[in-house]
Write a structure and sequence with these properties.
The complex is a heterodimer of chains A (382) and B (89). Chain A is built from 14 helices and 14 strands. By secondary structure, chain A is of the alpha/beta class. In chain A, the strands form 3 sheets. Chain A has a 7-stranded parallel β-sheet with strand order 10-11-9-8-12-13-14, with helices on both faces. A 4-stranded parallel β-sheet of chain A has the order 4-3-5-6, sandwiched between helices. In chain B, the strands form 3 sheets. Chain B has a 4-stranded antiparallel β-sheet, with no helix packed on it. The chains are: A alpha/beta (382), B mainly beta (89).
Chain lengths: 382, 89
């Protein structure tokens, strides 16, 4: 199957053609926000760091943000910096390959003049992007993120298995799908290991999951058992393995082809595992940084969170959440519970929604401009 | 016939109630009546599709998720009261 996307010089296809204005450090967020008020249709990214942290966190945020400025859904980039920070606007603009990118530094001109310069640059970008047309591309050009959050007892019954059906259909088309949230794989390391397409890859994934298990135990101490919480048990889950299998269900049934670092771009097609935490926004940031053009996000309790420049398709596990949050949810897998639809039926609906979204159809989160940004940070601030 | 339970994987020996099931009620999956509920089963909870001997694996998503603590009869509710996590090396 095919979709129509924006072909980038480096070869990938975008499903959107956004002007992105991004801060390199939180101190520059005021100018980014001002440009967002003036141009409501551009995508803005304001974040909380960019300075005052250690080299590991610098690398994580630089890798993620350079993945985002190079994202195929982005057509042009303006980076706003302060001047004295660790992660500079020039670093981000220089990282952009094959599309227009500019950097502005507030300490050279002040906020007002920087905003005025930014207005001229953004107007120029908008003019440039207007002439660009979508071109036909095979679905195999897609990288789709698989995410669950705010799960309930039915997430592993309806929404995640349905997303698994859609993931298998995408892989069948030659596309790549990426699942993160390694903490949600605890208790299934031996099962996921056997799904890897080589013993070496299996060892790598198992080691990663066991590392997260140890990390969770260290961080939570006696509360580590809360990974399977009393609420989970009330919902019918009898072990951490059962809970994690319900999360893994969204990956479908195809072999695991590659295990990549946080926000790293996969080199293979098929099912990819990315090392992300479970925290929704950090996990989506990793997938976006890795180049996922679309993220499908299942939810039981309901969450409106989208992500900058990446359409996020919401799938509810039950109809109460779908009805309570009308306008936030794109596909209702709760229909399996109350209208007799099958997991396969809803899987096909999700697949169709992905194809529609790839061709330009807006998701609820895009219509609502629910564009939430954060990036993984593990160390201290100074 | 209205479904009241789901079987996720063909290998599974438990089904998942998609609404409250009461003792004696027919369990209907994919429009087919498979068995009778031996006890009440809450929505999203598991029900045994076959007899599972003590120590035997409970299979969901096609994988062992827990093992039976005691013999579990077909139609019974399966949860932490009659199953336990599988010991791993």
């Amino acid at each position: 199957m095919e979709f129509k996307g924006y072909k980038r010089a480096e070869g990938r296809y975008g499903v959107r053609n956004h002007v992105l204005v991004v801060s390199s450090v939180s101190c520059a967020n005021g100018v980014v926000e001002a440009l967002g008020r003036i141009f409501p249709d551009i995508v803005t990214v304001q974040h909380a760091y960019g300075c005052g942290y250690g080299p590991d966190d610098w690398c994580t945020s630089f890798n993620m943000l350079s993945g985002l400025v190079n994202h195929p859904n982005v057509g042009a980039v303006l980076a706003i910096g302060l001047g004295c920070e660790l992660l500079k606007a020039e670093h981000l603009a220089d990282a952009v390959k094959g599309k227009p990118a500019e950097a502005l530094v507030i300490q050279q001109a002040g906020s007002a003049a920087t905003t005025r310069k930014g207005i001229d640059i953004v107007e120029g970008f908008i003019r440039q992007l207007k002439g660009q047309k979508r071109e036909t591309a095979p679905l195999s050009e897609l990288l789709v993120g698989l995410k669950c959050g705010g799960s309930d007892a039915f997430s592993g019954v309806t929404a995640n298995p349905s997303l698994g059906v859609a993931a298998d259909m995408l892989v069948g088309e030659g596309a790549a799908v990426v699942m993160g949230e390694v903490t949600e794989m605890i208790g299934t390391d031996h099962i996921l290991k056997s799904r890897c397409d080589s013993p070496e890859l299996g060892e790598k994934l198992q080691k990663l999951i066991l590392g997260h298990e140890k990390y969770v135990k260290n961080a939570l101490g006696e509360l580590a058992g809360m990974v399977i919480a009393p609420g989970n048990i009330d919902g019918g889950l009898s072990s951490i393995t059962e809970k994690s299998l319900g999360c893994n269900a969204k990956s479908g049934s195809t072999p695991i082809r590659e295990v990549v670092d946080y926000s790293a771009r996969p080199t293979k097609k098929g099912l990819i595992i990315m090392n992300t935490p479970g925290y929704d926004i950090d996990a989506m940031a990793g997938m976006a940084g890795g180049g996922a053009q679309i993220i499908v996000f299942t939810t039981g309790r309901g969450t409106p969170a989208g992500f900058p420049a990446v359409p996020v398709i919401k799938v509810s596990s039950n109809s109460t959440t779908f009805n309570n949050m009308r306008g936030d949810i794109d596909v209702n897998a709760g229909s399996i519970l109350d209208t007799g639809k099958t997991v396969k039926d809803v899987g096909r609906e999700i697949f169709e929604c992905i194809v529609r979204t790839a061709g330009g159809g807006l998701t609820s989160a895009e219509i609502n401009k629910s564009s939430v940004f954060n990036c993984l940070k593990q160390g201290a601030t100074f | 016939m209205n479904n009241n339970a789901l079987k996720v994987n063909p290998r599974d020996n438990v089904a998942i109630a998609i609404r409250q099931i009461v003792k004696g009620e027919d369990i209907v999956i994919d429009g087919v009546k498979l068995l009778e509920a031996a006890e009440d089963v809450a929505p999203s909870h598991k029900i045994a599709l076959v007899d599972i001997k003590a120590g035997g694996s409970v299979i969901r998503y096609g994988e062992p998720i827990v093992q039976a603590k005691d013999d579990i009869r077909r139609g019974q509710w399966v949860h932490v009261h009659n199953s336990q996590p599988i010991e791993r090396d």
